[in-house]
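Customer escalation, tier 2.

The customer says the design service returned an amino acid string that "doesn't look like it belongs to this structure." They asked us to rerun it and document both sides in this ticket. The original structure tokens are below, unchanged.
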């Protein structure tokens, strides 16, 4: 069982070395960072929208009292 994990770890290192030697590791890094930044900006937008809706709900409930 441990031979399989050792072999798998070795192949992943070879893949990383291959990507690094071809310069594609930077493309992978850029794609991952772009996806991460997109998620962060989406969550920030969602937070602003939720805050706005909560304020509108508070204003609406204040008018009915």
């Amino acid at each position: 069982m441990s031979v399989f994990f050792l072999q798998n770890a070795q192949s992943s290192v070879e893949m990383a070395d291959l990507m690094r030697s071809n310069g594609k590791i930077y493309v992978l890094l850029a794609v991952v960072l772009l996806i991460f930044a997109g998620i962060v900006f989406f969550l920030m937008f969602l937070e602003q929208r939720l805050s706005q809706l909560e304020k509108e709900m508070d204003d609406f409930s204040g008018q009915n009292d």
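Tier 2 assessment: The sequence is consistent with the input. Residues 24-64 form the longest helix (41 residues). The chain has one domain: 2-64. Sent an explanation to the customer and offered a walkthrough call.
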